[in-house]
Structures are given as C-alpha cells and as structure tokens.
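Data card: per-record layout.
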Amino acid sequence: MSRTRQAFLLGRHLTEVTDVAVTLEYVSGAEWSMNWPDGPLYDEMRAHLDEALAGYRFADMRDRKVTPLRGDTSRSWAARAIASRRECTLATAVAEGAAHRRRMGERQLGTPDPRATPEYYALLQHVQELQRTTSYPERASAPEDEPLIEDLLAAATRTDQHGHRMRHVSKYDMAHVLLAVEQAPAGDQPPRLAVVPTKEEA
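The structure for this 202-residue chain is written out next.
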C-alpha cells in the first residue's frame, strides 16, 4: 500500500476516533501535516496518533514526521464566548484586558477601525485563548448555551448586496455584536442576543 493511501486511511481512522475531520497532507521529504478543526487539544490528538501508529495498519507512517495543526471555527468562538459570559468571566476578562492595553498604550497595525476599542481586542484575545485551551471548544458547555450560540452566529452573519446570507461568520463581527450587547444599559439588554444580520460592506 502506498504511503499516500495509508496517510488517507490514517486520517479517516482518526476522524472516526475523535469525531472531527482529520486529514494528513504531504509537506516535503518525510514531513506530513495533520490538520483538524476544533476538537481535541494537541496532546490529545497526539495520543490518538501514537496509539494508531503503534498498530500494524499504519506502520509505514511511523518514520514520518507528522506536524499537528489545529484550526478553529466560528462555532467554537461563539461557544467559548457564550460559556464565558454565562460563567461571569467574560466581563472581567474584557475589563482587565482593556485596562492593560490602555496602560501599555498598545497600538494596532493597519487602518484603525473606529469600533476597535481596547475592549474589542481584549475580548478577541480572551475568547481565542479559550479556544486554544479547551478540548472540543465547539461544543456547548451547558444546554442553555446552545440557543445563544446560534443567536450570536446568526447576529454576526453578513448578507451580500442581494440580501443573501453569507456562509462565513467572522469572529470579528461576533466580537462587535457581543460587545454591543454587553455594553448596552442593563434595562436594554435582551434576554437573548438580538438576531440582526449585518450588511456586507461595499
């Protein structure tokens, strides 16, 4: 069996074991990359890989260098943000992160976004860290999180010039939506996130 075929079967095996889409892609020489979105942490996926390589089915991959590359999705960003909000850690993390940025006088490269406040960047950093350190970050941490996750994804979904909803949801749009809800006066905050799609900028 060719090594390419064995790498394909190894990816399919890991997909079945982890319940996330795992692919192995050839890089160069003896190096391959192992790619998956969200799901297991690096150490967890490495353990699954080592267990698979210990058997005879994928023996030809044992001498290969396999570099793990874990991606993330909009779904996991929304799930971690909503979980942090429910656990009452979101507001504190944003406030502390924003205060630190102001003390350090941190500036962002590129064209400044008038909506991109220190709170905005602190929120992005906090949730991205939760994505990075949480196993299966795309899964709701509590049943009551699920409708709010869907609301956040929907609220940040853009529409094109024809009014059609776009498939991609940006974490940057979700951060702006969530901050708007968090910063609204207590009496004006909806019990659930308002589903108001944003228009695609020209």
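Known properties of this structure: The chain has seven helices and six strands. The longest strand covers residues 31-37.

See the next section for split statistics.
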